[in-house]
Amino acid sequence: MEQIHMNNKNDDFNEKLKMMAGSSDFLIFEKRSNFSHPFTICYFKPLVDPTILHEKIMPLLNVNADQSLDVLFAMLPITEKKLTSEWKSVEEGLLKGYAAIRFRAEGNQTLIVDVGKKEGRNVQAPEIEFSVIGPKEAFVESITANLNLLRKRLPVPEMKTKEMTVGNLSKSKIAVCYMEGITNEAYVNTVIQRIEGIDFDFVLDSSMLSEMIEDSKKSIFPQLLDTERPDRVAAALGLGQFAVFMDGSPHALIGPVNFALFLVAYEDYYLPWHMASFFRLLRFFAVSFSIIASSLYVAATSYHYEVVSTSLLSTLISSRADIPFPPIIEALVMELTIDLLREAGARLPSKIAQTIGTVGGIVIGTAAIEAALTSNVLLVIVALSALASFTTPNFRMSTTIRILRYPFLLGAEWLGLLGIFIVFAFLLVHLLRLKSIGAPYLVPVYPLRLSDLNDSLIRLPYSSFPRRPSFLRTRHSSRKSVEIDEE
């Protein structure tokens, strides 16, 4: 009875292989040699490297076909290999670029060997977070290469990784990295639990993953920081944050974070602290100006002429003398025009995009003024607002700032300055309630953490950073030499 049962299992195994053979790119090669053990090798052709297959595996098979799979397993000069009788393991291996080797005399016993083709970009300079000073390496789409870049910067055994798979169809590989003995385990456990709870068919990029594990999915504010810089991730792990990598994505996610981190360019840490503080304050001012400049124009021209100085008022009146539209329509048309130019430039090839951005802005702006569709004062304000929004180092936060201008415009049209303050109050309440993996979004301003203000609106000298940020609740707050708990 046992022999019959084994034969049935063997037949079932063969049937599943034949089902996979229904795909044209799945190859099954069977060799009936003069030896006592004819063998079968199968694999997906697009996933395997033919050089490894024909130079390292086939010669050993031809010479040692009369041996057992155990002997072959010991002789193969490949690290990633496994002996299994479970079809699920064989199937997963084949879909990852493994070759499956079977000897007929050994039934379902299968040797799966990694012969995957390693294709992808080489490490290049950052394109989004480029810096004049500092390292010139950026993450690529290979999670193995990205972890290699990180390990080079953190050559310590305390850096741990937890690997998972998400996506019912995409089977995307995820790695959560953290510093054992420093990172608060509650944050790590939370993000791991959220990733493991994802039930979706395709998860193809870290931006999709970020939306699925953020605290508030209805908020337009990003709650995890995405970066392409290995040095930034290494520094974040050292501070007590965690990082999430995804195979196929050239960005890592860092958390927990606060609002100020999205306005910090990592080049700030390579500049003298005086210059870094100046540029950081300039970014905060630019973001504020970008959000409310157009709405202040609408409020002043619609409700509050008295707040405009007399010398400027005559210029403002003359510029609007022939405009047939109310200020809100004028402002919305110009804001939408700028966003259309920006979106068109982002979707076109780089050389054409530069032409569209420059020529389009000049031609449309000049034509709008000559046709009396907008005032030259508003054109200058909108152009400066768009320029100010470009100072935001993070793309997702830059997009959020673009969207925020419209509620403030509507508030200015509704009640003037009072409408702007009402919209600001709603925005402030939302930010006060927002969290990043359980950490307050507006820290260190609220809750107030005086010790963390040395690296928020400004960056003080490194001698002012003796301790890690308190909002991360790290197991060791000191940044000097300490004994890390081993548990």
Automatic annotation (TrEMBL):
Entry GO terms, CC: membrane
InterPro entries registered for this protein in UniProt: Spore_Ger, UPF0353/GerABKA_families
Membrane-traversing stretches: 281-303, 362-388, 408-432
GO aspect biological process, one term: spore germination
One matching Pfam family: GerA
Keyword Chloroplast included in the entry's annotation: no
Entry annotated with the keyword Transport: no
Protein name as annotated: Spore germination protein
Keywords: Membrane, Transmembrane, Transmembrane helix
Protein family (similarity comment): Belongs to the GerABKA family.
